Amino acid sequence: MKVLYFARLKELTGCEEDHFDPPIHSIAELIAQVRRRYPQISTLNLFAAVNQTYAAHTCLIQVTDEIALFPQVTGG
Amino acid sequence: MISVQTQDFSVAEIYDKLRHANPGPIGAIALFVGLVRDFSHTLQLASLHIECYPGMVERELQRLVAQVQQQFSDVQQIEIIHRIGELLPQEQIVLVGVSATHRAEAFAACEFLIDQLKTTVPLWKKEIRADGNEYWIEHNTPAREQIVC
Q1: B75-102 pLDDT, tens per residue?
Q2: Closest chain A residue to B123 measured between Cα atoms?
Q3: Which of B83, B110, B84, B86 has its CA nearest to residue B94?
Q4: Whole-number Cα distances in Å, A35 to A6, A27, A43, B106, B124
Q5: Of A3, A2, A11, which Cα lies nearest the Cα of A69?
Q6: Minimal Cα–Cα distance from A58 to chain B, Å?
Q7: Which residue among A15, B98, B104, B122 has the highest number of C-beta atoms inside a 10 angstrom radius?
Q8: ipTM of the predicted structure?
Q9: pTM
Q10: How many C-beta atoms lie closer than 10 Å to residue A2's C-beta?
Q11: 3-state SS class at A45
C-alpha cells in the first residue's frame, strides 16, 4: 500500500512516498503503523486524505486508493 | 478561477478580471492579498518555502469556490491565487478576490474564503532563517480537531 507524505512529515520520515504491507483496513491502522515505523513523529498531529479528500481516522481504505498523510495545513 | 503557481501575480490584472469578466450586476469588489511576514518576530526571516499537495490543493480550492457560490447568492465571480516555492519577505503569497452585487457579501465571502483556505487547503509554510535554521510553521490557525487522527 502506497502512502504519500508532505511537509514536516516528509522531512521527519525522510521520504515522500512510503509502502506498507496489506492488510491495512483503516486510516487509524495505517497511522498506527506509521508511528511505529517512525517514532520521531510522535508529537506530530497527522491528517489524512483518501483520493485527495480529507478522511477521518475511521475511514476504510483499499490498496488502490491514493492515500496521503500530512501535518496541519498552514497556507494563506 | 483558481491558480497555484510559483510566479508572482498582478493585483491590477485580477481586479480588471473581476470588474469586467462577469456580465452580472457588480456593485462591489473585495480583494485580500497576503504577504510574506516574519512569523518569528525577530526580523531574521531569509525566505519562506511553501509546499502543496498537488491535485488536492486544486480540489480543495474548487470545493471552497463551490461552497461560496452556494452560500452567498450575491457573489458573481471569485479569483484565488496561491503561490508555492521560495518567497522572500514582503512578497505576495495569496490573493482572494470576490465580486458581488453588494459590499456586505463581497466582504463576507472574501473573509470566508481566506479563513477556510488557511484551515483546509493542503499548503504548508517553512521559514528559512538568516542563520540557516529552518522551521515549519505549525499553528497559524486552529486545527481541524474533528479530523485529527
Answers
A1: 999 999 999 999 999 999 999 999 999 9
A2: A75
A3: B83
A4: 15, 12, 10, 44, 21
A5: A3
A6: 9
A7: B98
A8: 0.95
A9: 0.92
A10: 13
A11: coil
